[in-house]
Design goal:
alpha/beta, 7-stranded mixed β-sheet, 9 helices, 14 strands, disordered N terminus, binds zinc ion, 25% helix
């Protein structure tokens, strides 16, 4: 670690005295889960078309507040075959209403990962809580000129004229999502590498389109030496284990999103592989178990 990084670490103060990065090994692949922070989200957005008493009971069971929740926001860094891959980039720092999110860039640096070390970025989708970090002022100049940014072609196409008719978001959100996605496309078009259904970014690192949440929503599947881990992006939320058919207000095709979720959770329960997802509580490494017709998230023991 350079002297610069040490002074940076030392200057972060008490707000950094929370666990914000967690390393896990998948065979020969190194994975680092980094917390971008937390976002406030109205509880009703988690299940807008569910009986409000059912949602209230679920929140109560989980000791969560009934009105506004802190929604966790995780990204991951993957190292394989000499490549350093950032999967999603967090919210960025230009939203004054969300001061507790947008930590990805400085937490990467605190972990000793300079932006110039990142060879690839994989974006699960172009919602601002996944792509906003790339628009952090001054960041693009610090990234390598040959950076590859992997996005499903259906996702890039969708944001040219996005459809919000099946979403249920608070009023200012769709405009903010449109604006951030279009700024991302403007700024990173030259680095973008689109794929149709899947693409192997590095040995054992496969990005695979699922659709549902957004038309080009994708997940990242890691496999090495018999170990497997899936980064599910927004295909799985905390509420979705016990209530996989509940519709989240951010889903552009909620029925398809539920189908994707159920199929993925069934598969992960069958294989026993590890799951990490954007909005599960940090560090979010867990396994999926079945519980009758639904699922359970079984947190992995922390590996010290
Ligand atoms: Zn999200």
């Amino acid at each position: 670690m350079s002297v610069d990084n040490i002074s940076h670490l030392g200057s972060q103060g008490l707000d950094e005295l929370v666990p914000s990065r967690y390393a896990v090994q998948v065979g020969g692949i190194e994975v680092l889960v980094i917390s971008d922070g937390v976002l406030p989200i109205a509880a009703e957005t988690l299940a807008y078309d569910t009986d409000s008493a059912d949602l209230a009971a679920w929140l109560d069971d989980k000791f969560l507040p009934q009105d506004v929740l802190d929604w966790p926001l995780n990204v991951v860094v993957v190292r394989s075959g000499g490549r350093t891959i950032l999967v999603d980039a967090g919210l960025g720092v230009e939203f004054p209403d969300f001061p507790r999110a947008g930590q990805t860039v400085h937490r990467l640096e605190a972990a000793g990962i300079d932006p110039s070390a990142v060879t690839d970025v994989v974006l699960t989708h172009l919602h601002m809580d996944h792509v906003g970090g790339l628009l952090t002022q001054g960041l693009k100049e610090r990234l390598r000129p040959d950076l590859r940014v992997h996005v499903a072609s259906a996702e890039a196409e969708f944001w040219e004229a996005p459809d919000f008719s099946n979403t249920h978001m608070p009023a200012p959100v769709p405009d903010a999502l449109r604006s951030i996605a279009s700024r991302f496309l403007d700024e990173y078009r030259g680095q973008m590498r689109t794929f149709e259904s899947e693409y192997e970014v590095a040995p054992g690192v496969l990005v695979a389109r699922t659709g549902g949440h957004t038309p080009g929503h994708s997940i990242v599947r890691l496999a090495s030496g018999g170990d497997r881990l899936t980064f599910a992006g927004d295909a799985v939320f905390e509420v979705g284990f016990e209530n996989p058919e509940w519709h989240n207000g951010f889903e552009h095709d909620p029925d398809e999103a539920a189908r994707v979720r159920i199929q993925l959770l069934r598969e992960l329960a069958a294989t026993g592989e590890a799951l990490v997802a954007t909005h599960l509580p940090f560090p979010s490494v867990c396994h999926v178990a079945t519980a009758g017709d639904v699922f359970r998230c079984v947190p992995a023991a922390w590996d010290y």
